[in-house]
Amino acid sequence: MTSWHTLTSDEALSALGSGPSGLSYEKAKRLLADLGQNQLEGPMRPPLWRTFLGKFKEYLVIVLLFAALISFIAGESANAYVILGIVLLVAVIGFLQEYKAERAMEALRDMQAPQADVFRDGKMVSLPARELVPGDVIFLEAGDKVPADGRILDETQLEVIEAPLTGESLPVKKDPAPLSEATPLADRRNMIFMGTTVSYGNCRAVITATGRNTELGRISSMIQPRPVDPPLKMKLEQLAKRQAILVLVISLAVFALGVAKGSPVIDTLITAIALAVAGVPEALPFVVTLALAFGTQAMARKSAIIRSLPAVETLGSTTVICTDKTGTLTTGEMTVREIRTYRSVQVTGSGYEPVGEFLQNGLATDPRSEDIAQLLKIGVLCNNADLNHDGTKDRIIGDPTEGALIVVAKKGEILEETRNSYIEIVEYPFDSDRKRMTTVHRSEMGGLEVSMKGAPEMVLERCTFIAGPQGIKPMTEEDRMAVRAASNDMAKRAMRVLAFAWKHMEEHEPREIGWVESDLIFAGLMGMMDPPRSEAKEAIRICQKAGIRPIMITGDHPLTAKAIGRELGIGQDEVIEGVQIEEMSDEALQSRIKDVSTFARVTAEHKVRIVQALKLQGNVVAMTGDGVNDAPALKAADIGVAMGRTGTDVAKEASDMVITDDNFATIVSAVEEGRRIYDNIRKGASYLLSVSFAELATIFLGVMIGLPVPLLAVQILWINVIAEEFPAIGLAVEPAHDGIMNKKPRSPKEPMPSRGLMIYTLGISGAIVIGSLGLYAQALEAGQDLDYARTVAFMGLGLFTVCNAYCSRSLERSVLKMDPLTNKKLILGMTASILSLLVVAYVPFMQSIFGTTALGLQSWGMILAASLMVVMVSEALKKAVPMLRL
């Protein structure tokens, strides 16, 4: 592969078989036929019907479908229809949530320029960008979107915004001079890249790559579906497999024993079906989906849009957040942070909002004092940018660096006054050789004023005087050394440093550049940077307290990355650059990534490698970002988080979650919500499994000791699908408990349910079995008929389920310390559950279907007394099993 940035302009043209006048139409036509059009082709998407059917491949759903089939075979069609209804509802909810999840390639295609100015047969014509081929010579000017990758032939003050591709927060000044082989992508000043935008100047360039061969094309090929299922899905599948094996073994054992004893085959089969129905928690897929769906609604109210349901749980179990810097941790807007005259003054505020203070040694100082006001005035006069308020926020028109000078002048309340008092008559613009800009203005007070800004060394060489606390004096070598030291100090703190100078001129003096740019008075320095968001530092602190490791990955300069990391508390000041990553093996990267949390000058490939290295260490990785260069890593991470306002369509489409307010703190809120939801799923799983285990054990033990089947299949299904589901909905929306963000993230390898939770679940299940089977046996012993005894067992099991639901609100806190009014949906669900049980027991029509009968007061008294046993066992287990704690 040719390293175009190492060649001269003539060498690049020669290698491409082109020339300054471009290609001929005939040659371009041949190349287009050979290489294809200049566009990004996306992979074939599966049809919607296939996506929908894919929802039925989940293991727990397959188990439910099998249970429905067995019910049909045994003639229990009502059971089968209810199970199928649940399966269909789960599939529809999942399908609707993920309907628009895979459109990253379409967004990439939308980024391309539709037309391009091309030289063909020596004449410039406008052609569709898709018809460009390597060797075409194109012309670009301010505002143009770059249609393909190219090598710059010549340029005039060319600046290109490459932030969406490289993460560089400032427009990049271009230069056609050849570069070394090892020059990173972000520093290839003689190249232009598809998808970026020309912000200033113009150029001619020869196309070196089109379509999928461009840098943007390579990124698009890296955006691949995740090979690994979300953690929650895998855990639920493992749970379903264990449950299916348990149910199958017990059902077959009961069937075999029954047949061996000479029981009728049909009766024995019905008993086995009852066991199968009892052992499968039919409501679990629905409750999990419901908890996740409720979670997406709650997150949407907090400015986080979830594009994939499993992402909610994944976010809650996140152990590492890899965050882009520009526009995510920072505002994405250049801001003056420090002013140096003969004193040092800090400027507060961030972004383009003209609000802030001027502080000297922490105390407010007047920005209209002579030294500061003069510096701010030069920044206004030597400037072509403007500040505009569009009704919602302040925006800069023009160069971001010049915009920062306008904003700080507005903060100092001298912007309008300066503009109204001076008229520009001469401008010597900035260029890459002079590295400074100079203007001459006529003052309304009379006379002319020269203003200069630029690189400190370039401004210093034109100065012979300096402004100090005692006024203007000749500049000495000591003064120059002091200015250089101050400039270096600011640069080490990742600031972009500009120097400012001025002088008065008379109307009769020459206005040629040599005279104008001589004998200037040095006014001072201004340091600016893309500052951290005001809320980002607190969000990072909360993440660290919650056991989540933040890692900053940026395409920006290492010094900038280090300074931002230090200010936010990320890492230990050590930075790894992209060129170092390229030299590392995967094993070496995994070793280094344990200790380093800041990465700079990285490309899209580097970001993906970092994410993959973290995942191989067992981390659950969230990746945040907003640029095209973030998209592959967003897709490779366990959960991709895109910024909604500044994020590109590519980043949004590659993500699982979009933060609509571009606020890093919203991610922390989303993590808390994810933890709450996973806690509720754990509670719901324990609650449902304890009932299923109890039903399974009640029937199995009852049959083993020679009793008639204690519960009918239709009775079990009513409890599993109706009676226990109402409280389960309430558990799905249980509010977050105090201290949820003070705990370490769960281990990604933790099973569902965990060891401690399984002990709790089995303990509750045992209490329910003892109560249900005891009530059933007592009723038979008292001479009650079989329907009455089964009704006692049915009502007892149902009421135990309701008590279990309330106890499950917290797996740590006592029921006596829980306020019932904080979860009114659960109270309503418990009430609905009890009513559904009473309907089955007392409505004649339902009695005939479910084989139930009305109960006497004595039986109700025994059921209520037995219910207290479930509560007491729950209280004892919460104190005895510390492993329950997350």
What does this protein structure show overall?
- With 886 residues, the protein is of the alpha+beta class.
- The protein folds into 4 domains: 4-42 and 106-222, Distorted Sandwich (Calcium-transporting ATPase, cytoplasmic transduction domain A); 282-303 and 670-884, Calcium-transporting ATPase, transmembrane domain (Up-down Bundle), CATH 1.20.1110; 306-330 and 534-662, HAD superfamily/HAD-like (Rossmann fold); 337-529, Calcium-transporting ATPase, cytoplasmic domain N.
- It contains 34 helices and 28 strands.
- Strands 10, 11, 12, 13, 16, 17, 18, 19, 20, 21 and 22 form an 11-stranded mixed β-sheet that branches. Strands 8-28-27-26-9-23-25-24 form an 8-stranded mixed β-sheet, with helices on both faces. Strands 1, 2, 3, 4, 5, 6 and 7 form a 7-stranded antiparallel β-sheet that branches.
- Strand 19 and strand 20 (471-474) form a beta hairpin.
- Helix 4 packs antiparallel against helix 5 (77-97), helix 10 (265-279) runs antiparallel to helix 27 (664-704) and helix 27 runs parallel beside helix 30.
- It starts with 8 loop residues before the first helix and ends in a 6-residue tail after the last helix.
- The model is unreliable at 100-113 (pLDDT under 50).
